[in-house]
Amino acid sequence: MNAQTADTPAPADSESSVKYPQFQFKGLLQARYLESFGDNVDVLGVHHSTGEVTQSSFDIKRMRVGLNTKLSEATEVVILVNLADFKSDPKGKVLENAYGKYTFNRYLALTGGQFRPAFGIEELVPVDIIKSFDFSNQYYEFGKNGWTSFQIGASASGSVDLGKIPFSYAVSVLNGNGRNQEMDNDNGKQYATRLVFGLSKLHKIDLGLNGGIGKRSNQKVFAVGVDITSDFKLTDKFTFDLQIEYKQGTNQNLYFTLPPEGRTSKIDDYQMRGIYFLPNLRYLVDYKKLTSLELSCRFESFDNNFKTNPNLRRTYTPMISLEFGKAYTGRIEMGFEIDKYDNDIPDTSYYSDNLFLIQFQLRL
């Protein structure tokens, strides 16, 4: 009788012993040295036909501070700001992530606020652990058009097993006019979907399909994409991973920035498309404080208006990276961003350039 009525303490790792809220602070510093080797092209990639051109400079690319708060086992709130945005006009910048997420189970989680909607490989990877200096050209252009980067809206996501194939999904409804906006700029919304199929667990081969439709000022817009990732373990110390991503969609941002008399009547005449390959070879050093050595080179082809006024931009980004600590706690990167345009346009950023970079990274 005593055994049945006595209070029994809960195991140390049981849910009842976990105390909420739980806080996790995050931080990131990316400091750079830049030097342009283009003719009269500054470190920001802008050509100058007259005047003095700044071709070497130190820069703080990102100074992020973030807080992840778990209110319960199922509920979390995420805040992320980039203090480096204060060096220029901070309007529409600084605040990056500001969302809440409730996870019912592995099949369904709901997210609302300002977040990065799942629409491609790069949306799922923080900028501090990507295999290049920065995201691709197509990522930023699709961000200007409301599909990638930080957007305001809501999303449902989850994962299931289709037989032996792992499958995950994400469906998002977005304002589509960027971050830190007081409200949507019209009554139209953008609907984005991402589906991912795990084709090989051994080599981590995943196939992603992306699609989106929406309206901007009563004009129909769209975006589609396909991507594949893989990670091969060659030896105990060598691994090789590869990312390939293709996207195409309406460039409504370009269309609405042009004066009515300077554009056609059809928004579908203004489309962007791009593809990139990002191979990365990683060698596990594990010598004193040096963890690994990585060699990568992203090859990208992108055109932001290929139907009406094509001007293909080819970008090559060879890079060597030294990793210190685990999970890129410390990182030193060195390499080039080589831009080649089919048609150079003087006094604009649409101009061929060779930019040398050294980037120092610390993350918490």
Structural class: mainly beta
Compute the average pLDDT.
Answer: 93
Order of helices and strands: HEEEEEHEEEEEEHEEEEE
The percentage of residues in β strands lies in: over 45%
- The outline comes out as globular
Cα radius of gyration in angstroms = 23 Å
**Spans with pLDDT under 50 lasting ≥5 residues?**
1-8
What's the end-to-end separation, in Å?
53 Å
Percentage of residues assigned to helices: under 10%
Separate helix tally: 3
- The count of DSSP E runs of length 2 or more, i.e. the number of strands, is 16
Largest sheet: 16 strands, antiparallel, barrel
**Which strand order spans the largest sheet, edge to edge or round the barrel?**
1-2-3-4-5-6-7-8-9-10-11-12-13-14-15-16
Please write out the topology:
Blueprint: H1 2-5, E1 22-36, E2 56-70, E3 75-82, E4 95-105, E5 108-115, H2 137-144, E6 151-162, E7 165-174, E8 190-200, E9 205-216, E10 219-233, E11 238-250, H3 252-257, E12 271-287, E13 290-303, E14 313-324, E15 330-341, E16 353-363
Antiparallel strand pairs: 1-2, 1-16, 2-3, 3-4, 4-5, 5-6, 6-7, 7-8, 8-9, 9-10, 10-11, 11-12, 12-13, 13-14, 14-15, 15-16
